[in-house]
Design a protein that fits this description.
about 270 residues; alpha+beta; seven-stranded antiparallel beta sheet; 3 helices; 20 strands; about 35% strand
Length: about 270
């Protein structure tokens, strides 16, 4: 039972290390636009059956009665992201977009890789394409790159662009307004299946079992950025709790180790 206690505590300590790493990442990204906080789920290793001897004074009788079960510890099962709404912060930059509700912006990297993000801090590159700050193309609802040439559109700057709540880009001229492409807002049925692949960028682990969907309940807000949904106070409290639990398990391991050493020494003396 002594070694079993050490094993259970050690598994708990390893899980707490994973949890502390996740909490530290949340703290580091409290100011990262579009970041979604991490969380861990744990699973029970297995339950051991505990029996009580029927005849304690008769070692030859191995029969026992069932007392119950005891958990043999828990281990980290998987990392998940919590896609709750982050606060929208006004920037008044015409190319800053925030999603209120469901969905993601769809990005295409130069190598063709597709990712999804809630960080709508966009700009127009030298080729007149709408991109994020890392140079990834922003795609419209038809999976096409979005081209915004001010000269061809006969507008002075991005200040002449307005973006409707459904994502439609409109070029505003003195005499008229021209509807352009509509920014694509996509969603997934199983967000627990999403994994991080970069700064505020996510993809489904398996696109075949969790396919891309058109978002339904959303509103695109121009001149706003969605902040991280990680709260610094909450995460600091979680970090303190994890540290205290780790210290408790460390003390248990030391105590069990001392008991094991005493048992070994006692066995040597009796040998």
């Amino acid at each position: 039972m002594i070694s079993r206690g050490i094993d259970i505590a050690a598994k708990g300590m390893m899980s707490l290390i994973d949890l502390q790493d996740s909490t530290a990442n949340n703290i580091a990204n409290v100011n990262t636009a579009g970041y979604k906080k991490e969380g861990l789920s744990f699973r029970n290793v297995y339950n051991a059956i505990v029996e009580e001897p029927i005849e304690r004074n008769n070692p030859k009788n191995q029969d026992g009665r069932l007392v119950g079960e005891i958990s043999m510890g828990s281990v980290t099962h998987r990392l998940v992201h919590q896609f709750s709404q982050g606060t929208l912060s006004r920037t008044d930059n015409p190319l800053d977009l925030g999603i209120e509700g469901d969905g993601f912006f769809k990005l295409q990297a130069p190598d063709g890789t597709i990712t999804y993000t809630r960080n709508g801090s966009f700009c127009i590159n030298s080729a007149n394409m709408l991109t994020d700050m890392q140079g990834n193309l922003v795609l419209d609802d038809q999976n096409r790159p979005i081209r915004l040439n001010f000269t061809e559109l006969n507008i002075a700057s991005e200040k002449n662009l307005s973006i409707n709540e459904d994502g439609t880009i409109v070029a505003n001229r003195n005499e008229n307004a021209q509807a352009l492409q509509r920014i694509g807002i996509f969603d997934f049925a199983n967000k627990d299946d999403m994994m991080a692949v970069g700064t505020s960028q996510y993809v489904p682990k398996d696109i075949t079992t969790n396919p891309e969907l058109r978002a339904q309940k959303f509103s695109v807000q121009q001149g706003a950025i969605e902040l991280s949904n990680s709260n610094i106070i909450t995460e600091m409290i979680n970090s303190i709790k994890v540290s205290r639990n780790y210290e408790t398990l460390s003390s248990l391991v030391r105590e069990k180790s001392n008991q094991l050493s005493q048992a070994i020494n006692l066995g040597r003396l009796n040998a």
